[in-house]
Amino acid sequence: MESLIPDFRQLLLTISPILFALTVHEFAHAWAADRLGDPTARLMGRLTMNPVAHLDPLGTLMIVLANFGWGKPVPVDVRYLKRPKQDMLWIALAGPASNVISAALFGVAFRYLPDSAFQWVEAILILQYAVFINLILAFFNLIPLPPLDGSKILAGLLPLRQEMAYRRAEQPLSVLLIALIIIGSITHISLIGRVILPPVALLTRAFMGV
Prior knowledge:
71% of the residues lie in helices and 0% in strands. It is mainly alpha-helical. It has one domain. Mean pLDDT is 90; it is low at 1-6. It is found in: Cell membrane. One of its GO terms (cellular component) is plasma membrane.
């Protein structure tokens, strides 16, 4: 029973950073889409910082268990977009960008904490988790495998012929993503983690000045 206490304590400390990271990520998608002319997310109540509107149960659980995950996808109707290909790229990029900016701001807050604040160990840990989790969510979503943001960003950068070929491969690529997650969970050898953790660790140290 005692061995479970640190894990439960860590779970409690990470709940707030997880909720914030997922919420700001999906809000950023909704905000970008709205700014580019698509009111769909706003009309569906997604242009909000209320976490309930954005949480995907499985995606949230994956962040807790595997250090990466996702929120409920923001609906986008490309018919409202003036430049669908380019605008979809910016809408997709808004999510990870919001997490990197949030991580940087939490890092600044950590750097400028007064010495007296370091007696509040839990508050310090929450700030550290906020930096780390926001960066995990950002870099995981930049992986160019559907349905992650990285796939939409890559599609927006590819010439039309290559983009169409990439879109035809979306289903097998989605299966590949799921397989990588499952294999990593079973074997405890995460290829995704090996890709995203080095830049996450580098930026975490840079933002926090440690």
